[in-house]
Amino acid sequence: MQDIRTHLSGSREFQERCGALEKGVYIFGHTHIQWFMQQDDRIFINPGSCGLPMDGCEEGAPYTLLISDENGLQVQERRVPYDIEAFIRKIEESDQFERVPVWSKIRIKELRSRREHLYFFLKYASEYAERTGDTVRPFGKKTWEGAFEEWDRQ
Fold it and tell me: Which are the contacts of 39, defined by CB distance < 8 A and separation ≥ 6?
């Protein structure tokens, strides 16, 4: 969270765009990284990803509370512990794992590390497809599996 705050408070573009926004609370997501920041009378909240956090921090499913009371607005970040390995076993036993093993293995890697892997794999798969002469999109099973096998060894 500190890295995000440092980056945004040092970004002139962010400061300018932030200043143009109405005062209030802005809630957004899709980065799977829990954080919040207050800038003057504006609060920015990314509640994280309940079950698939990508912040490499604490274990558990993050969620964020926005509390409004007589003292104003307060942001509380919380995490609920859960058994990641039991969840992974369920994935491995599921039809999903059987039908889309590459996707499932990447998600499992992300669950264990609490870090983004999918973006990097997709970039690698594209390079692999080009290198092996696969011009068909979406990639065929052979390309997905070959790319994953190489990528996973690295």
Answer: 8, 9, 15, 18
List phi, psi (to 5°) of 25. Answer: -110, 130
Alpha carbon separation from 70 to 11, 44, 67, 73, 97 (Å, rounded): 33, 20, 10, 9, 49
**35-93 confidence digits (pLDDT tens):** 898 888 899 999 988 777 777 777 888 899 999 999 999 999 999 988 999 999 999 99
Amino acid identity of 34? Q
Does this model's pTM top 0.85? My answer is no
Q: Which two tokens stand for residue 107?
A: 């998600």
Give the H/E segment covering residue 27. Answer: strand 24-27
